[in-house]
Amino acid sequence: MIAINNVSKWYGDFQVLTDCTTRVAKGEVVVVCGPSGSGKSTLIKCVNALEPFQKGSVVVNGIAVEDTKTNLPRLRAQVGMVFQHFELFPHMTITQNLTVAQMKVLGRGKEEALDKGLKLLDRVGLKSQADKFPGQLSGGQQQRVAIARALAMDPICMLFDEPTSALDPEMINEVLDVMVQLAREGMTMMCVTHEMGFARKVAHRVIFMDQGAIVEDATKDDFFGKPRSERAQSFLAKILQH
Amino acid sequence: MGDFDFSIIATNWRFLAEGLRYTVQVTLTAMVGGILLGTLLALMRLASLWPLQWLAAAYINFFRSVPLVQVILAVYLILPLLLQFLTGRLIPIGADNSAYFTFTIFEAAYYAEIIRSGIQSVPRGQVAAGYALGFTYSQTMRLVVLPQAFRNMLPVLLTQTIVLFQDVSLVYAIGATDFFGAADKITQRDLRPVEMYTTVAVVYFVLCFALSRLVKYLQSRIAIIR
Fold it and tell me: How many residue pairs bridge chain A and chain B with CB atoms within 8 Å of each other?
């Protein structure tokens, strides 16, 4: 589904990604973790070409994103993305947030888009909030709407870029619950997150990044059982203490 | 003192009202045209292609560095020649019509800078979210960035328009009959400058003050809940 081959990226002289290679198969849930500044958000943004890269290749569903002939809007419409800061459109109601891309990008009619949007809103447990504006919702609620908005496009895979790190602690679980449910339904997911409980529950593989490189790419059991790299061991020891 | 004669206003109010109507027309035309052209300039200035950036920056810096009254005169004198050169015919434009054009192109430079900062006030994540949903550049601008940018900058845009409303009075330099120009012409004929200019000043003050209160009110109404 997603193949990342030898991707390198520089900001000027500074190298942010170094020769990253990994794969996400259809139906697989892959968690990407690592210390801040390790390049995990940058890597996931390369998948739908929100970040350009200078070397290597990213292939999504058989289409190379770095190819200048690739129709990027069409590719991105198939790849759902959830952001750290939700990024709902604050000038639109929740309903409009859920329907605008369905209508403008996929060309769905208003009825169909509304039907789909409200169904997904109900699924994330927020049907009663349909006519509100994003600013009237809590962070956790906004993030659930953002997930529904991405799902409304019928994506072939979902990217999560630290979906819970901007949330108050008591709101993290409501978002993780939605993600767990999604994972169990067989959605292909690539998640940048520090939520190791989530990784334990549903991840198939865990990727550990440090200083722009993929240091560890292991099955969940291997990663939590016996991480090979020292860097991953000390990272795990630090975040699993509590 | 003591011998003010405000009857000059009463006898000439129709002429003054015509002038005021013209002032409002130029203001509205230059506002709409200036914001449209200004949006285009702002997008060019923020574009990744340097020739576009350079062109927009040159335009904006030029008009912001030249006195308005000079531009009014220059357009009035040069535009007919230019049109004659282009069409081969002599087209009389007249002072009144040339002002519509002048104010539109001049104000566009000021609006462009306001709009540029408005666009930059929209968080980058919003652009990313638009792209991630499959929007094209123009859809992202039209549906996501500009609606938020215009809400953020509406007070400044309207304040600039109030300044524009006052600046239209400069067309008296080319003899056009705006509100101020009308007063000027009456004064030259009937010699009652104090009464006339006082009245004009009061009308300008009342209108502009009322408009600025309206801007304040709008600001509280349309702010985005964040």
Answer: 73
Q: Which amino acid is at B111?
A: Y
Q: B128 vs A89: CB contact, 8 Å cut-off?
A: no
Q: Which residues of B touch A (CB under 8 A)?
A: 123, 125-126, 128-129, 131-136, 139, 143-144, 147-148, 151, 224-226
- In sign, the C-alpha dihedral spanning B86, B92, B98, B104 is negative
Q: Is residue B9 part of a domain?
A: no
* ipTM summary value: 0.94
- Structural domain boundaries enclosing B157: 20-176
Interface probe for B, chosen from A45, A91, A94, A99 (most Cβ of B below 10 Å), is A91
| pTM: predicted TM-score of the whole model, two decimal places | 0.85
Q: Which residues of A touch B125 (CB under 8 A)?
A: 83, 85, 87
pLDDT tens digits for B91-140?
778 888 889 999 999 999 999 999 999 999 999 999 999 999 999 999 99
pLDDT at B143 over 80: yes
Query: How many angstroms away from the CA of B56 is the closest CA of chain A?
Result: 26
Q: Which pLDDT does position A43 carry in this prediction?
A: 96
Give the CATH number for residue B136: 1.10.3720.10
Amino acid at B147: P
A→B contacts (Cβ < 8 Å), by residue, are: 45, 48, 50, 72-74, 76-81, 83, 85, 87-91, 100-101, 104-106, 133-136, 149-150, 153
- Are residues B8 and B186 in contact, defined by beta-carbon separation less than 8 angstroms? yes
For residue B144, give the chain A residue with the closest CA. Answer: A89
Could you tell me if residue B122 is inside a domain?
Answer: yes
In a domain, B75, yes or no: yes
Residue of A48, A85, A133 with shortest CB distance to B132: A48
Are A90 and B129 an interchain contact pair (Cβ–Cβ within 8 Å)? Answer: no
> Using 50, 70 and 90 to split pLDDT, how confident is the model at B8?
confident
Number of domains in chain B: 1
What is the C-alpha to C-alpha distance for residues B177 and B187, in angstroms, rounded to an integer?
13
CB-count burial class (<10 Å; 0-12, 13-18, 19+) for A100: buried
pLDDT at A242 over 60: no
Task: Determine, yes or no, domain membership for B50.
Answer: yes
Chain segment A166-205, per-residue pLDDT in tens: 999 899 999 999 999 999 999 999 999 999 999 999 999 9
DSSP result, B129-156: HHHHTT--HHHIIIIIIHHHHHHHHHHH
Q: What is the CB neighbour count within 10 angstroms for residue B100?
A: 15
Checking if the pLDDT of B9 tops 80, the result is no
